[in-house]
Amino acid sequence: MANGSACQEEHFKNGITNGAEWYELEGGMQDFNYIYSNCFEITIELTCCKFPSSSVLTKEWEYNRESLLTYMESVHMGIKGLVQDENNNPIPGASIHILGINHTVKTTNRGEYWRLLLPGTYTISANAPGYNASVYRNIIVKNDTRSTTVNFTLHTLKQSSAVNLSTIEVKSGKRDNDGFPIPVTFEHHNYNHLVSKLNLINVNYPNITRLYTVGKSVQGRDLYVLEISTSPGRHEPGKPEFKYVANMHGNEAIGREMLLLLAQYLCQNYGIDQRVTQLVDGVRIHLMPTMNPDGYEISRQGIEDVNDLVGRDNANRVDLNRNFPDNRHSLHVQKQEPETKAIIEWIKSIPFVLSANLHGGALVANYPFDSSAIDGNPIPQASYTPDNDVFVLLAKTYSMNHPKMHLDSNKCANDTTSFKDGIVNGASWYSVVGGMQDFNYLNTNCFELTFELGCTKFPFQKELEGYWLDNRESLLTFMEQVNRGVKGFVLDDKGHGVRNADISVVGIEHPVKSANDGDYWRILVPGDYEISVTAYGYKKKTQSVHVYNSTTPSWLNFTLIKENLDEWSQVNDFGLRSNVIKINDYNTKAMFLNNLKELENSLSNVAELVTTPNSLDYHSAESSIIQFKVTENVGSPDEFKFKIAILGGLYVNEPATREILLFLARHYVEGYRKKDKDIVSFLSKVVLHFIPYFEQNENSYEKTCSTDDQAVVTSPLLIATNQQDEQKTTNNLWKMLQREQFDMMFILEGGSISIKGPTIHPRNTISIILRDYEELFYSNLKNTCGEPLDRKINDVKQKVLDTFNNVLKIKTMALRLTCCNYINPLETVYVWMKSYHMLKVVIENIQGIQGSVVDKLGKPIRNAIVSINMFADIYTVTPNSAVFKAHLPIGLYNIHVKATGYLMKSISISVHRGTVTIFKVIMSPVGHGSAILELSTLVKGSVMDIENRPIEGAIITDDSSSSVSTSYHNGSYKLYVGEGVRTIRVSAHGYYTSVKSINILDNRPQTVIFKLIKDETVFNMPRLMFIVLTVFIISIIGVSWYHCYLRWKTGRPSSFAYKNGFALLPQKPYLFDDDDEVELFRNPVIKDSATRPYHDDSDISFTDSSDESVSCYVR
Predict the structure, then answer these.
(1) Which of 583, 804, 874, 1112 lies 20 to 30 A from 676 at CA?
(2) How far apart are CA 241 and CA 228, in angstroms?
(3) Beta strand 508-513 with 447-454: parallel, antiparallel or unpaired?
């Protein structure tokens, strides 16, 4: 190899070459190692022949053996060491710099580093965010196979050393008036010129720049981003990410040229200007000069009219700043354009902290929210985020550093609004639904503002220099704000980063999440804060921090302790070990059935497993539907109980929802076993149907966090399009739901943390009660996911909800528990722990009415139908007892009941929070009274006992109209009746019924007080008499039993005794024998039997106390 000419037509001096000098190779592994890691890699070509014959392998081994060994020994060439803080804790991610060599290496999680160097003398420094740098000079590296050890101790940066970097600019070398060491040309760049300019910057500054694309426009133009950082291409733990996006509207060109100039300014001044150097060293900067390259190409220069729309939209004529998902406005559902999709994926892939969207046509700093809180509000109305103080500070940072923006007198010709201090809340200016800055705030950690840079959207070329001078300071100062507030790491007890931890500021309802390395950033205004961190599987931790008015952040690290699963289970889940054991794989259908069978066998009076059709048949087993019923006295008639279904696994890529279903079933069964009073009471009123759904092809999906492929969710797609009979499993599910007709159904889903109902319809009951359930859901489970990105599958989910509600007439809501559709099975237990309280309060929220329809003889009227005055829902009664049930929000309702052959009956019913109003409707045959009763007069009052204590839950009935109400916790009630003489009846458990007649005239309200007497009778007898009689009867029974027992004990001996001449001696006299001369040894005499004296061998003789000895005879 050393002679360099071993192969024909190739000559390498000393047998080595620089790869690029030999031939150009993009995407090579050795370059990747050097750029993206600490590793130095070379490529060694071992032979001229790529696949030599085996006969030459021995020779090749002899040639290469020494080289391979010697090369491995080179790993020790240079320096190595540890980087620690003053407490000897390792500092991960610290940078090791060699003066004069523009290439750094990073420390490992244990603070170790290795740096290959040639023999010589070096100046070496180590630095890390939040620490003062440390420098060693004159470090000698010897020509040796042993590394020189250089350890560093970095001291935590003291707050007193914080400096407002915006006031510092150290000039070194000559720069022109625009701040450029190398003069630039102020001109507009079309797409081709823009790409050439970006490539030129990247080529000239390869050590601190990277040019990449995030996607393509409608017409196929690349959406380029220029990255400027000391580690291009990778996120450095602890270093914040910043972005500028310009030219979103194609005809607003100022921002496009400002970002090209900013890129040149940063690159040219890096290493010359202290401020720029510290900015690039401390922040990873991303600049996107154009988001709408297609629109720019048809725009016109010099147009003053801000209403000019040529080039504003993309090539599909869509305004990109109205095209983002907006989860504050549920009716805003748009198909995302290619540019929008690319930006969303980009924003989601990098942990951006701060951002600005550069526009033109006005001169103002616009901060969120951009949309008003009310859809379609024609009058602009301010809408503030929970971080309004932060956004105002950020907006003023830009406007106050701009020479004109903050001036009240500075207005554009088209302005109809005055902008105090040059800032405005977007919604107070005009509402923008689907804007990019709102999407950033609601769906990511990133805080974004929109800056309108000038009155002219597309100024003439000659004006660009003036725009640069106006905006340069603002652009730089705004970037420096990325380090304002708090930053740090969330670590576990082993020092590993915890990703996706929620970092919440007490009092501000907007959490951020930790990045993959556990690093986080939270921009805050100066002040004292309590910051809490939560993460799956870890205990919550809260710490205090003071934030200074500085662009040097306050460091706050968190070390989380793993959650004690058994401890949580004891407190919340009856110590169910099976619910907190981490699972490595999801249960198959057979395994799920086994779990449910075990649960059924453990408490068969509460749990029942049902499969339809019968799963014993192998062919039907694959398509069978599993139901697991849980209720008190399962199997007994349950017409009077609310039937609630909980469906999990409907979406094949969300198997965790089935496991949560199993956990929930175990919880209720175990709660009943342990006589938990709330669960016992709940299961006495409801029948829970747990339905784990399995696709026939369960593994037909990709195990990724989210997917937007509708073809994956076969069954829901068939249901959404009313083609459920196309697949056997789906058809069986549909038939089961048709047959059962549940009063309420909850579908457990993933893809976001939210509760969803069917498409809003003001006359559907579910649309109204959904509001109550939303309050219960979000008060127990916070949405930390943002808007789901699986829009196509979301459309299917919405149609499924609509189908269940509108076609099957089952009130259905979706409870979405996880941000991802698919989660690792190990995380399932933590999802259960996190969503446990929400599931309990939502499922157990039974509130509404329960009635039965009978004739005057009390016979059920089974053809009755029921409607409620303000809703379109129609209820049928059950086939046996003619019972109907309805979930309703709090309020007063007129219930209308119709049946063939009977007059329609209208009843006024009140529904109270968390209670079910129970009543009976007595129907009159046709020709026996009025068809409709006008119930317009209010009767109110209270129900008390004789000691004036309120009675809650008393039933107040108007016998004349069957209008019913119940008393509140303070005993008060309200009842609506008709005119005339009314008979008001009040009954309560444990009290005598009270009846009063009142005369209603002119619809005037009346107040009636009821006092109920405690019912002291038992079986219609006075309580004292019942007690005396009970004691007497028990005594008689007891004595009789004892008499029989003694008779049995002293009765005739057994046949064995007769045959063998033995009999047991009674131990005490007969209880009822008054003869004092009872013979203790009374023995039966058998005819013709012989007697003989008995001698015990142990007693040869004995002496009795009497003078006369007595012989004992036995048979």
Answers:
(1) 583
(2) 11
(3) unpaired
Strands 120-127 and 134-141: antiparallel
Q: Who contacts 610 (Cβ-Cβ below 8 Å, separation ≥6)?
A: 626, 627, 628, 629
The Cα 249–Cα 310 span in angstroms is: 10
Report the C-alpha gap between 111 and 39 in whole angstroms: 16
Q: Which residues pair with 96 in a beta bridge?
A: 105, 126
Neighbours of 37 (CB within 10 A): 12
Query: Same domain for 872 and 810?
Result: no
Whether residue 208 is found in the same domain as residue 96: no
Q: How far, in Å, CA of 805 to CA of 811, rounded?
A: 5
Please state the φ and ψ torsions of residue 729, each to the nearest 5 degrees.
-60, -45
Instruction: Identify whether residues 329 and 343 lie together within a single domain.
Output: yes
495: left (phi over 0), alpha (psi -120 to 50) or beta: left
What's phi and psi for 81, nearest 5 deg?
170, -170
Q: Are 668 and 595 in contact (CB under 8 A)?
A: no
* Other CB atoms within 10 A of residue 308 CB: 15
Cα 433 off chain centre by: 25
Q: Counting every residue, how long is the chain?
A: 1115
Q: What is the C-alpha separation between 352 and 447, in angstroms, rounded?
A: 8
Q: How far is CA 481 from the centre of its chain?
A: 30
- Tell me the pairing of strands 905-911 and 891-898: antiparallel
Q: Please say if the pLDDT value at position 644 is more than 70.
A: yes
Convert the pLDDT of each residue in 300-339 to its tens digit.
887 665 567 888 999 999 999 988 887 677 556 678 899 9
Does residue 1052 sit within a domain? Answer: no
With helix as H, strand as E and coil as C, how does 638-697 read?
Answer: CCCCEEEEEEECCCCCCCHHHHHHHHHHHHHHHHHHCCCHHHHHHHCCEEEEEEECCCCC
Q: What integer pLDDT is reported at residue 931 of this predicted model?
A: 42
CA 101 remoteness from chain centre: 47
Give dist(CA 356, CA 366) in Å, integer.
10
Which residue in 112, 115, 37 sits closest to 76, CA to CA?
A: 115
Could you tell me if 543 and 637 lie in one domain? no
Cα torsion 193, 197, 203, 204: sign: positive
Burial 777-813 (b: 16+ CB within 10 A, else e): beebbbbbbbbbbbeebbebbbbbbbbbbeebebbbb
Whole-angstrom Cα distance, residue 626 to residue 587? Answer: 14
Residue 274 pLDDT level (bands cut at 50, 70, 90)? very high
For 703-715, the pLDDT digits (tens) are 888 776 666 788 8
Which residues, 6+ apart, have CB-to-CB distance to 657 below 8 Å?
A: 648, 649, 650, 651, 748, 749, 750, 817
Nearest to 482 by CA among 369, 390, 546, 386: 390
Q: And the tokens for 61?
A: 């081994």
**Number of domain units in the chain:** 6
Give catalytic residues, as residue numbers.
45, 452
CB 439 within 8 Å of CB 324: yes
Q: Please check whether residue 510 lies inside any domain of the structure.
A: yes
> Which residue, 747, 717, 760, is CA-closest to 817?
747
Tell if the pTM clears 0.85, that is, is over it: no
**Measured torsion, CA atoms of residues 221, 227, 232, 236, in degrees rounded to the nearest 10:** -120
* Pair (136, 245) in one structural domain: no
Structural domain harbouring 559: 487-563
Report how far apart, in Å, the C-alpha atoms of 974 and of each of 95, 963, 967 are: 74, 11, 8
**Is residue 22 a contact partner of residue 32, using CB atoms and an 8 Å limit?**
no
Domain final residue, candidates 563, 585, 607:
563
Residue 170 DSSP SS3: coil
- Provide φ and ψ at 508, rounded to 5°: -125, 115
Query: Is residue 130 assigned to a domain?
Result: yes
Residues 991 and 899 in one domain: no
